């Protein structure tokens, strides 16, 4: 996990998705974790993918739409990470908490961008 904050949001969302993938590799292989891992992989990657799409906007409406999807996916990532953290006896629970914190920060940043763009 990267300890230095990245201020380039494209890079930061990429690092978040990458770090989530490293984290899920450490989870016990239970049916619930396998299914939850699929969900968090999708939502964490979608934060960055939709942010990239927003930057290639065709219109202000398109920009806001993509940014809102990116924010929604950040919220969903928080949900899945919390669920994984609270339903497992993780040795690396601090890593889960760091990822939850990063997803929360990304959600706040995206919310701020959306508010300022409306």
In words, what does this structure look like?
The protein has a single domain, classed as de novo design (two linked rop proteins) (Up-down Bundle). It contains four helices and no strands. The N and C termini lie far apart (34 Å). The model has no long low-confidence stretch (mean pLDDT 94).
Summarize the structure.
The chain is mainly alpha-helical and 118 residues long. Helices cover 79% and strands 0% of the residues. The chain is elongated and about 45 Å long.
Helix/strand order = HHHH
- Portion of residues in beta strands equals under 5%
**Largest sheet, if any?**
none
Distance between the termini: 34 Å
Identify the CATH class.
Mainly Alpha
Residue runs with pLDDT of under 50 for 5 or more positions: none
Number of strands: 0
Give the CATH architecture: Up-down Bundle
Overall form: elongated
Structural class: mainly alpha
Radius of gyration equals 14 Å
What count of domains describes the coordinates? 1
- CATH-wise, what's the superfamily? 23S rRNA-intervening sequence
Mean pLDDT, as a whole number?
94
Q: Under CATH, the topology is which?
A: de novo design (two linked rop proteins)
Q: Helix content range of the residues, please? A: over 70%
> Please, how many helices?
4
Pick out its properties.
single chain; 118 residues; mainly alpha; de novo design (two linked rop proteins); 4 helices; 79% helix; 0% strand
Topology, element by element:
Elements: H1 9-24, H2 31-55, H3 60-86, H4 93-117
């Amino acid at each position: 996990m990267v300890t230095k904050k990245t201020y380039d949001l494209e890079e930061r969302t990429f690092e978040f998705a990458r770090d989530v993938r490293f984290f899920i590799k450490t989870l016990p292989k239970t049916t619930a974790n396998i299914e939850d891992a699929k969900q968090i992989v999708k939502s964490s990657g979608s934060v960055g993918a939709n942010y990239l799409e927003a930057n290639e906007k065709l219109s202000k409406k398109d920009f806001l739409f993509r940014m809102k999807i990116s924010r929604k996916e950040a919220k969903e990532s928080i949900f899945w990470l919390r669920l994984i953290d609270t339903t497992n006896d993780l040795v690396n629970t601090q890593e889960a908490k760091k990822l939850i914190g990063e997803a929360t920060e990304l959600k706040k940043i995206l919310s701020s961008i959306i508010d300022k763009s409306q």
